[in-house]
Amino acid sequence: QVDTSPVQADFALRAGARIEGIVTEDTTRRPIAGAVISLEGRRAVAPNLPVAPLSPEAETGADGRFTLEQVPPDAMSLYAQKEGYLTRIVTLGPLPEEGDYPPVAIGLTPRASGDDASVELTGIGAVLAARREWLAVVDVVPGGGATDAGLASGDQILAIDGTPVGRLGYERAIGVIRGPEGTTVVLRVRRDGRESDVVVTRKRVRH
Q1: Strands in the chain per DSSP E
Q2: pLDDT band with cut points at 50, 70 and 90 for residue 48
Q3: Of 125, 121, 123, 195, whose CA–CA distance to 159 is shortest?
Q4: Residue ranges of the domains in the chain?
Q5: Are 163 and 178 contacting, i.e. CB atoms less than 8 angstroms apart?
Q6: 5-33 confidence digits (pLDDT tens)
Q7: Residues 6 or more apart from 91 whose CB is under 8 A from it?
Q8: Would you tell me which CATH number, out of the four given (2.30.30.60, 4.10.320.10, 3.40.50.2000, 2.30.42.10), belongs to the domain 123-206?
Q9: Cα angle at 119 between 114 and 124, to 5 degrees?
Q10: Inter-CA distances, 72 with 35, 80, 103, Å
């Protein structure tokens, strides 16, 4: 016999965070209209899937300002794109389930003729590859924080600010390594079987 009695389900819908900000030209501070702002993150319903674009999107007005509504708490980064400029990736901090996130200011760099770079972000300036329990340093960017700190191809990053890479997972580890320009991150690095803590300053890098 099938039970057809009503079943009550209680759940709460969260409004999501609200992000306001402004996009300007990096050198002149002139507001940029028509820049597209999008989100990158890991969907909570499928945490094992790779980082993917999330909705919603926004476009800056004549004053360079934008507003994103209903931003999910798993959003990791903002992408700011405008033809003629390098795409800028800005890492987000912890997002509230609802309410306002601190205002975001994004500076876009004009793309020079013949410039091979297409993306600009703040990080340690290293090309990393995922391994089961660590990140492999594949290459370092000249002038980046990783180069300044002495990191080299073949190094293995075991932990980031004290948290093992295996616990973070690849995408979250990359998100933690990114951060505000001028701040530092402590990496537990293994080289030739020896481990040490390396302090790396985050810089703006292009690729």
Answers
A1: 16-25, 36-41, 52-59, 65-71, 75-81, 87-91, 98-100, 104-108, 119-123, 126-130, 135-140, 156-160, 163-164, 184-191, 194-201, 203-206
A2: very low
A3: 195
A4: 16-115, 123-206
A5: no
A6: 665 655 455 668 999 999 999 999 999 99
A7: 76, 77, 121, 122, 175, 178, 179, 180
A8: 2.30.42.10
A9: 120
A10: 21, 18, 17
The residue length of the chain stands at 207
pLDDT at 135: 95
Kindly provide the b/e burial profile for residues 129-147, where b requires at least 16 CB atoms within 10 angstroms of the residue's own CB: eeeeebbebeebbeebbbb
Q: CA-to-CA distance for 50 and 2, rounded, in angstroms?
A: 41
Residue indicated by tokens 């580890």:
173
| Planar angle of CA 121, 44, 161, nearest 5 degrees | 50
Structure pTM? 0.74
Confidence of residue 148 (pLDDT cuts 50, 70, 90): very high
CA distance 97 to 168: 21
Class of domain 16-115: mainly beta
